[in-house]
Design goal:
The chain is α/β, with parallel strands linked by helices. It folds into 2 domains: about 140 residues, Aspartate Aminotransferase, domain 1; about 270 residues, Aspartate Aminotransferase, domain 2, CATH 3.40.640.10. It has 17 helices and 15 strands. The longest helix has 22 residues. It is globular. The two termini are about 40 Å apart. The relative contact order is 0.14. Bound molecules: pyridoxal-5'-phosphate (PLP). Pyridoxal-5'-phosphate binds next to helix 6. Its EC number is 2.6.1.-. One of its GO terms (cellular component) is cytosol. Belongs to the class-III pyridoxal-phosphate-dependent aminotransferase family.
Length: about 450
Amino acid sequence: NYSLKQLQQVDAAHHLHPFTDHKELREAGSRIITRAEGPYIFDSEGNEILDAMAGLWCVNVGYGREELARAAYHQMKELPYYNSFFKCSTPTPVLLAKRLAELAPPSVNQVFFGSSGSEANDTALRLVRHFWALEGKPQKNRIISRKNAYHGSTVAGTSLGGMEPMHQQLGGAVPNIVHVMMPYAYELALPGESDHEFGLRAAKAVEDAILEAGPENVAAFIGEPIMGAGGVKIPPMSYWPEIERICRKYDVLLMLDEVITGYGRTGEWFAAQSFGITPDTITTAKALTSGYQPLSALLVGDRIATTLTEKGGEFYHGYTYSGHPVACAVALANLDIIEKEGLVERVKNDTGPYFAQALRERIADHPLVGEVRSFGLMGAIEIVRDKATKERFEGDGRAAVVVRDHAIANGLMLRATGDTMILSPPLIWTRETIDLACERIGKALDLAHKDLFA
Ligand code: PLP
């Protein structure tokens, strides 16, 4: 048995972490999470922490679900693995694909499985380019994305994403991907511009990029319905319908990355339904299994699927674990829980509106807070030095890190990205859990205010 100190030493010596400064890790030591139950995680010191991030936006049904463990156990005993290459399959991916087709918008009926959101976006990129080649338009291969978007960490995911520091480290992105402005009114709306007008202007940036490249060269536009890692940027309601209209006008495919928003977070099964649009592809992962197994599903619209089927020829793409039987069994059991407990409806009609009201009434007036915003159970708090002028603290996200550290010390796990505090709690949260979270956020903000103005 290792003590905490020993585990931290071994961790620093042998374990390379994702998105981590390893010099800092060595100095500070890692936080070791040892178990979890319902909405709480517990660290090796026995501290109980309310998890306002659902892990990494994924544990939507909460921790400790026996049903999911049982589903994995039974499937492992029956058939732990077989592949879905070369016209083979196993039962669970078949049943899951049918289930997802029933939940998705009507013209989305086919599913390609992988193990992560990044893999699903790689697949999506290759699939849309393959589609246009099959249609006899191989030059139609440019993809339009947004600045500050996050679409994963593989080479294609990083290239699709719009995070500058990631591009710099990559040292050479996949060619023919361009990035336009994000729909972030708090910073980018012009004086006097309404939310509605700003949404249309942000969509117009996509049209401009299509026209600049020539529509005959543009394969698709990709976006997260609500930007997640980029800071829970919620577009005005005018944005997505206008994007869809522009895509249809120029015959550009519409790709939605719903790796975070899929499976209930916005109060519908998919955010496409929240914004009233019908995309050609929907990338999903995370909450598909509530994070209990690694699994992604790329949902493919009829237009692409019909061309694939009618033109034939092999799509030279796939992963050993595409349609993994155990992961798919867990996903089916997870969807059962979401359905049985009415979690999607609960977000839409109860906890989502309550969450918005709680942030507005109990957090927004704090002197450190420039703006609060939320959609369903996805929220953000902007940290500023000056509310009136929106002036930020100096240093790259330093202030948000101070707030985050106080929050964790006071029993609430949330995330800081840039100057933004992010919340993405499990869908099992109740009004009482939201109250508790707001109380702890308030405490963290007060303590951070003292530190930052000391
Ligand atoms: N797309 C979005 C919108 C995400 O938020 C993420 C991960 O956070 C990904 C893609 C990548 O998913 P994964 O980490 O499973 O590869």
